[in-house]
Design brief:
Layout: H1 14-30, E1 36-37, H2 51-60, E2 67-69, H3 76-86, E3 99-103, E4 127-131, E5 141-144, E6 152-154, H4 161-172, E7 179-184, E8 187-191, E9 196-199
Parallel strand pairs: 2-3, 3-4, 4-7
Antiparallel strand pairs: 1-8, 5-6, 5-9, 7-8
Helix pairs in contact: 1-2
Length: about 200
């Protein structure tokens, strides 16, 4: 077990910085596909977690929100850092998680491997936090839905065609379904379940 004094630090001002990140996440969810910069950087790069995902966990995760880590992030250092700084329980059962931290390479996993919510509590579904190499330069994806005036195009790197096909199915489940936040370094973009995602060459 790593001593708390040797774990990488969290926010230098937890209240101010978590409020800033929370507002940024709300902005991203209200404006699907818009790239938002998180302006409360951590004092050091730590563990295998991208800074943006670490900041979101510091802001949103707590003892009531079990966290699932995929193989890319399931290390002793990541686990200890998350538990020490957030108090969240870690789970190896993806269905029990409220947040799932995934790499873009593992995001092809079936979305129904996570909690999609239920008719009484659709808001209790899992939110997927997915680390991407970049939020630009990938295949073009067209977004439509609430928060988008007509259409919006994004091009995150590292996500497979099957992932985008699954997101179309996820959209059809509304009000059930997962919400997704893509992250590259300290930039994020959100894909709530209300957003329809189509590859640009799709009919």
């Amino acid at each position: 077990m790593t001593a708390p004094s040797t774990l990488a630090a969290g926010f230098s001002d937890p209240v101010l910085h978590s409020q800033s990140v929370f507002r940024s996440v709300l902005d991203a969810m209200a404006n699907p596909g818009r790239v938002i910069s998180l302006n409360s950087p951590l004092p050091a790069t730590h563990t295998a977690l991208p800074q943006g995902l670490a900041m979101i966990l510091l802001t949103l995760a707590d003892y009531e929100t079990p966290v699932f880590l995929d193989d890319a992030f399931d290390t002793d250092l990541c686990r200890q850092w998350i538990v020490f700084h957030t108090g969240a329980a870690l789970t190896t059962d993806s269905k029990q998680s409220r947040f799932a931290v995934l790499s873009s390479q593992s995001a092809f996993l079936p979305l129904d491997a996570f909690d999609l919510g239920d008719a009484r509590y659709p808001d209790r579904s899992c939110t997927l936090l997915i680390a991407c190499p970049s939020l630009s330069g990938g295949d073009a994806i067209t977004l439509t839905g609430p928060g988008i005036e007509t259409t919006h195009t994004i091009a995150p790197q590292g996500l497979s065609q099957s992932f985008w096909t699954q997101l179309q199915d996820n959209h059809s489940l509304f009000p059930l379904g997962v919400d997704i936040i893509l992250c590259a370094e300290t930039e994020i973009l959100a894909l709530p379940r209300t957003t329809l995602c189509r590859m640009k060459d799709a009919v």
